[in-house]
Design goal:
single chain, about 160 residues, mainly beta, five-stranded mixed beta sheet, about 10% helix, globular
Length: about 160
């Protein structure tokens, strides 16, 4: 049985997850500088130990309202291509994914780490509400809620 581990977080009280192998760190550094003339989902730039990180407002990227910073807000910092083992990028689920620069995703609240069997991951339903289906990679029914797995490829790719 093949297992996959996800870091989970909340956006508007909905549970979302990303493959943990892509996460460099999770932090509360929120001293962000705005980026004039950037797309509305670019929240700002973060100086993370001397390295510039572009922070995306994940809620805006998914079609929700702009994130309001609260004490529970966190940055999920994604690994770059250089930090990832080549085997991950060769996985067909991530074909075409390129992360040349440091990127952070702004989330409302951090959740737990969940490990699930690949058999438990289902295709996302057609009625995903406001979320554009291109950003979804699957769903996992849990005891009391639904884990929505996000497609890192779609989130980090500029729409044409």
């Amino acid at each position: 049985m093949s297992l996959q581990t996800f870091a989970t977080f909340k956006l508007n009280d909905q549970l979302f997850g990303l493959d943990i192998r892509f996460i460099r760190e999770i932090n509360k550094q929120l001293d962000l500088s705005p980026v004039p003339h950037a797309p509305d989902y670019i929240f700002g730039l973060l100086n993370l130990r001397g390295q510039i990180v572009t922070v995306l407002d994940l809620k805006r990227r998914l079609g929700f309202e702009k994130t309001c910073i609260t004490p529970q807000t966190h940055n999920v910092i994604i690994k770059t291509d250089q930090e990832l083992p080549p085997s991950i990028l060769q996985d067909t689920a991530y074909s075409g994914l390129s992360i040349p620069d440091k990127v952070g995703l702004l989330v409302d609240q951090i959740g737990d780490i969940l490990t699930v069997s690949h058999d438990e991951i289902a295709q996302p339903p057609a009625n995903t509400g406001k979320i554009d289906g291109q950003y979804l990679a699957g769903v996992v029914p849990l005891e009391n809620e639904l884990l929505t797995i996000l497609s890192l490829n779609a989130i980090l790719t500029e729409n044409p």
